[in-house]
């Protein structure tokens, strides 16, 4: 008797679910919030990317270990779930896929909020900004060469064929618009240290107070720095027909690709808070910027991770409280 591979796979998946104690009534997820790292505990110490979300939604939640995920999942009674997914594209994508495929959770109507810290070019942003993504772009899927091996002054990147469906995701403009509107009146926090650090840069955007912005998130495992690679990121954004590159991060496009394979991208939102500039000021080299002297680092990390939750929470709360209007799709905006 022949048994097709698909039948074997489905049978194995059921057995794994039963062995892992899958619940008869999976949690119906309304919003899933993904952060990339936490510094220490989920509450009560120095906050990383997850702590403010945890303290807002999951103080009383029981953590659920998920095979294949880097950290437990927390859910509240309102259907808001979240987890730390891990840093870098492989870590974050592997965790997201493990969570999405776990039979204890029903993601059939879920929304996703990808969150974390980022860098920003001083010509377009500042420390403490929070940026809603309208485009997610992979920085790495292409060909690169040393500048001296190409034409002087020309870009050193061309896309690699075959990755057209993976390297760019345009997010649902209606969902982006909801996020921007609901966070438009949020008062962002700031610090004296961040204000002082900004003045090292002559750009008006760099010296400005933190604000909520919209633009392209550039995903790359390479933690790139310097005006040359910043310009290359902007070149890639334009090459792919996206809006201005506003933040550099390491996970968003990869997470979106995992979600897209199962549920599409219409319900994905992404926000990033800027905790550093992607290049040094005119009085320091790129290497000096990467390895600053003691006391010379940018301030504002604590304030930025707080800002991220302040900006993202109104959308989460609107979706949950207005679930009847949201469960079948993003309401027209």
From TrEMBL:
Keywords: Signal
InterPro entries: Nucleoside_phosphorylase_sf (IPR035994), Pur_nuclsid_perm (IPR009486)
Span of the signal peptide: 1-24
Protein name: Purine nucleoside permease
Species: Paracoccus methylovorus
